[in-house]
Here is the input.
Amino acid sequence: MNAIEFIGVTKRFGGKTVLDGLTFSVAKGEIFVIVGPSGTGKSVALKHIVGLIEPDAGEVKTASPRIGYLFQSGALLAWMTIADNVALPLRETTRMKEDEIGAKVSDALAAVGLSDAADKYPSEISGGMQKRAGLARAIVRETDIVLYDEPTSGLDPVTSLSITNLIAEVNAKRGITSVVVTHDLASALKIASRIMLLKDGKAVVCETPAGFVASKNPYAAEYVAASKGEKA
Amino acid sequence: MTLAPKFVVSIGGAVILLAKAVLYFPHVVVNRDARRDLFRQLYATGIRTLPVVTVVSLFMGMILALQVGLELARFNQETYLGAAVMLTLLREMAAFCCGICLAACVGSAIAAELGTMKVNDEIDALVIMGIPPARFLVAPRILALVAMAPVVAFYSAMLGTIGGGVVGATQLNVDFSQYMSSALWMATDKDLYVGLLKSCVFGLLIGTISASEGLGTSLGATGVGKSTQRAVIVSFLAILISGYIVTRLFY
Here is the structure.
């Protein structure tokens, strides 16, 4: 079975159709990247996977209920230290002892390179570090699937690259399935197993990075050219 | 959706949220981490509102004593000043004024905090992690308000009575000890209990309304402002209406 399956998913908000019969699947272990202009339903698709949004029509299937989610803002709780934020899902949803939780938190923070920031508060660290902390919290429960909503938005190129590399590293080391929503095509081409281009809630192209760049689809060609700052 | 169904949906949502939160009250008391959060909320609800409540209560008692005392003086009945002030405060005004102070200070903070968490995706993050916001965020806040509102109201009633006594002694020629004995002679246990019950009801309503408005926030910073404003206004109305209902039930 695939890790994630979208079967004819349609979602409307008010009179606007955001997802229009969207069908795709993500294989286990893949890094599946969804790109497309703003407002085409990328984040809405992601929220369907975790059940934050229910489809009006169609079906979303996931192979595992253990899903982590990295929000664009990191979504860390301001009154807790980074270590407490990462420990939160373990403290609140398991009966683990504090020393076990401590070990898992240290492991997750080390995996994202934040061991030194464990005792800091979210307001005391940079945006890139907040995203790393959010990723540590997403993987601390040994999740099978991690969803990334704009993981590199608002970051400088160096930090963007480090987050992109981190996604690939976490995916490979932990054998998880990743779905990444991004505007950053350069990052997508670097790490993706497949890239899906959304337009008006429909998948225009779903290809490997090489296939995506070479796509004859006019909209995909225009998107690739625009991402390079060229005219198609 | 028209205004009336929206209002009904909003009340329905608040009632469901309250029911969920009440189910989690035992968890808040038993669980160590939740208990720590409860103490933080108790501090925010009780201690942080004390300066405002102190000023409001003192002046409320002083105004009451002045108004009532001047009228009683017309009939040479100043000896009943203590009873009049104490009864008014215990039965009604202490709970009412504390309710208003708590709605303005604590309810607005709850709505703004939860609203900001909502627009920053922190509420969604909790849901995805399998942590119900009703348990993690709402239950400790409502419980803290229900627990602290009567404490603050009692403090307010005592302080208001003292304020009234000072005005009586300095401006109405009513001896302070006479004022206090009149106050204690007339007040009954029922007056105290009904006043405290009323403040518990106010705490429950303020917590539920503010949390519900906060969690229902959308549209970014503007939405947070609107939720906070709605939380305070609806809380004020709920305090007035429920205050009348509780009074009618017991008197």
In short: Residues 13-250 of chain B form one domain. The two ends of chain B are 40 Å apart (CA to CA). The CA atoms of residues 28 and 34 of chain B lie 5 Å apart.
